Amino acid sequence: MDVTVGGTEFGLVNNSIQHPTASAGERSMNASAEPARPSRFPAAATREPGNNIEAADPAELGAEVTRACMDLAVGGYRGEDLATRISELELTARQWARLGLGLDRLQQAVYAGFRLGFDTGSAPQPTSDEGMESTRRQIDLLESVHIRLTRAYNQLLPAPANSHHAAARNVAVALLRGELAGPLARHCGILISARYHVIAVGMPAPAHRHAPGPPPPIASGIEAVLAERCGPHALSIFGAEGGTLLIPHELLEDAELGELVRALADTIRRPLIAVTVAAEPSGIPEAGRQAHDFLDTASAMRIEPGLYRMSDLGLHFQLSRPGPARDVLHALLEPLDDHPELLQTLATHLANDMNRQRTASKLHVHANTVDYRLKRIHQMTGCDPSTVAGLWRLRSALVVRRYTDRGTAMAVSGNALG
What we know:
Elements: E1 2-5, E2 8-13, E3 16-18, H1 24-32, H2 58-77, H3 83-98, H4 103-119, H5 129-155, H6 164-177, H7 182-187, E4 196-202, H8 218-230, E5 235-238, E6 242-248, H9 257-268, E7 273-279, H10 284-300, E8 306-309, H11 310-319, H12 324-332, H13 340-351, H14 356-363, H15 367-381, H16 388-404, H17 406-409
Parallel strand pairs: 7-8
Antiparallel strand pairs: 1-2, 2-3, 4-6, 4-7, 5-6
Helix pairs in contact: 2-3, 2-4, 2-5, 3-5, 4-5, 8-9, 10-11, 12-16, 13-14, 13-15, 14-15
């Protein structure tokens, strides 16, 4: 028997769903093997929402839903407790929505699974009162699955322009401009927090594709993750190159912000650089300006993606300001311009906490070669990398070089500047 789900045919052999890529020989082997009960949510039970779901294959996800619903149908006939399995299936419905797959295809996979469950022969024949009661339970179960999956799917749909998300963006704009936001917030059911994480977010061009397939819409993807993790009171404004998040302090601890930024990056399939500043509502405009100033500096220096605080970037920001001190530091490394291997050794040594063995391993040279190059750097710059004062000047010079000299910056690791 073959069942079509979303335009893909799946065969049923001995109660097992056969993927269309299986060869005739493989299907024959499956048919002669001992019948295996369908797997219960092989992936949904361990996959958390937002955890690399973009890499899921839609055909495999459809087959997973069909297998799960077939298992539910059989379990329903047997009178098993199915509450946990239905809850697990809701995770798959959310993944389906995140992938941008149509609700009609999800429902088609659900009904295909129930048909397969009915046709396996595990159900009693509805010729008695017991059989009729079993059939009624099956119909009730199908209705419950249909309603709960539709609700889970709709929770992560991109919101229409006149929805809560649009109103929340208007509240965020008002707060960032220093305008009165209370009346608008109350009108759309948003609570103004006493304190916010003001997070400036930038999206550097990725060095490689973050995940297969076209990226989802940025703004709706960001809003979906915020709604799922923070509820309706987290605010955001996003465009093609980045934006601003306003996260109430009571919703996320400071230590949890890094995980939030990683989840956002996974969802929109773009690397993110973020800078966070804490502020009360009246201080949000200034905090937003500061966060974006520091973000501009971090982006210009091509800092590694991730979440940063102003204390992490204070040196970078100060050394990026024009002035005689910056010019002196920039000139400090000029003797190394004709010796790129020395500049690379210095940056790598700093990135490895001055551990000569790790530096040598990273550069694929002998540790004695590292020592020799560090001595050359001392001779040519007058700064001894083996002393605290020398390291401070050399690290500061690398920061300046990374900001002002794009050619040299390409050879300098971002970790060396942290």
